[in-house]
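Appendix B, Record 12. Input sequence as logged:
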Amino acid sequence: MRKLNVLEMNRLSVDEFKQSKKNPLIVILDNVRSMYNVGSVFRTADAFRIEALYLCGITSCPPHPEIHKTALGAEDAVDWVYCKNAVDAVKSLQQQGYEVLAIEQVEGSTLLQDFVPGDGKKYAIVLGNEVKGVGQEVVDCCDGCLEIPQFGTKHSLNVSTTAGIVMWELTSKNLKK
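Logged structural output:
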């Protein structure tokens, strides 16, 4: 096997990305404090051609060198919106017809592998702060919660790792339709 070079990968330009059809998924970051995590989520959102990111509360916004360090330019391709708080973002997206799901460990959560997206439905997922997770007031206004099963000694994953797992799972389920 031979690794492909950059030209052989046929990647989209930023303009082509902006014009392309997106996966019907929006990612909301609720008070994510690390700009490296924010940049990583931008880069993953680019990889899976996600509609947009909503950056809420203390979550930093581009342009910023620390975001760019992990986003590697994805912050120029992926659309993003700043909201003062995630509750407003959730309510706005619900009014636009999105089903909003927090990624959090709660009573009655749905395991990620058991979630079946509805045909033609649009989704938004909420990812929370590195220490506190998704705020309870945000969880309270979501339509449901998804949980990634974990089997080790830790009770959580890094927010950017969680973002990658959930974006891939929802994107791959969308591709199978």
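The chain has one domain: 8-175.
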